[in-house]
Amino acid sequence: MQRTFIMVKPDGVNRGLIGEIIKRFEQKGFALLNAELMTIDRSKAEYHYMEHQEKPFFGELVDFITSGPVFAMVWEGENIIEVSRLMIGKTSPTEAMPGTIRGDFAFCKEENVIHGSDSLQSAEREIENFFGLLKRHRLEDDFPFEDR
Ligand code: RTP
Ligand code: MG
């Protein structure tokens, strides 16, 4: 059984899509383990998106994800990391298939409704970042930001 971190981004919260997204994960048979509406600070956002820190869009990505409340969740299920990425759909609205969450609801690459972890390692790191205490030992070596 795997766990993953799923987050409704500020545009999804603002558009009232939390219920729709929870419904899809419940219908798929996944189990909700934790959830919280929260507004995150820049250091948590920077840590969340650390793989993109050298990208030209990093600043705007952090601006966006800290611009309003997000709905952070931990879900559990068989192969959930891979399956949830399929349910979420591709990053860009021109590539996200109808039937996926982004395919049905997102029209913009920069604001695309939902995030899902892309690997076991990122799921572990992201759950720790948002909900704390789990697997803390894996975080110490590669943490590049101050004042988290
Ligand atoms: P996410 O991490 O948010 O679930 O999205 P993802 O895996 O599908 O895409 P990723 O490559 O990890 O990119 C993270 C977020 O950065 C924004 N982005 N903007 N302006 C651009 O060219 C650009 N490229 C990526 C997207 O909002 C993406 O969700
Ligand atoms: Mg990603």
Automatic annotation (TrEMBL):
NCBIfam families named in the record: PRK00668.1
Keywords, sorted A to Z: ATP-binding, Cytoplasm, Kinase, Magnesium, Metal-binding, Nucleotide metabolism, Nucleotide-binding, Phosphoprotein, Transferase
Stretches assigned to the Nucleoside diphosphate kinase-like domain: 1-138
Modified residue annotations for Phosphoserine: S122
Class of enzymatic activity (EC top level): transferase
Coiled-coil region(s): none
Function: Major role in the synthesis of nucleoside triphosphates other than ATP. The ATP gamma phosphate is transferred to the NDP beta phosphate via a ping-pong mechanism, using a phosphorylated active-site intermediate. (Microbial infection) Catalyzes the phosphorylation of dZDP to dZTP, when the bacterium is infected by a phage that produces the substrate for the synthesis of dZTP (2- amino-2'-deoxyadenosine 5'-triphosphate), which is then used by the phage as a DNA polymerase substrate.
Annotated catalysed reactions: a 2'-deoxyribonucleoside 5'-diphosphate + ATP = a 2'-deoxyribonucleoside 5'-triphosphate + ADP; a ribonucleoside 5'-diphosphate + ATP = a ribonucleoside 5'-triphosphate + ADP; dZDP + ATP = dZTP + ADP
Known cofactor(s): Mg(2+)
Protein name: Nucleoside diphosphate kinase
Family to which this protein belongs: Belongs to the NDK family.
Positions where Phosphothreonine occurs in the chain: T91
Gene3D superfamilies documented for this protein: Nucleoside diphosphate kinase-like domain
Subcellular location: Cytoplasm
Active site per the UniProt annotation: H115 (pros-phosphohistidine intermediate)
Subunit details: Homotetramer.
GO cellular component, one term: cytoplasm
Main location: cytoplasm
Classification via SUPFAM superfamilies: Nucleoside diphosphate kinase, NDK
Record organism: Mesobacillus campisalis
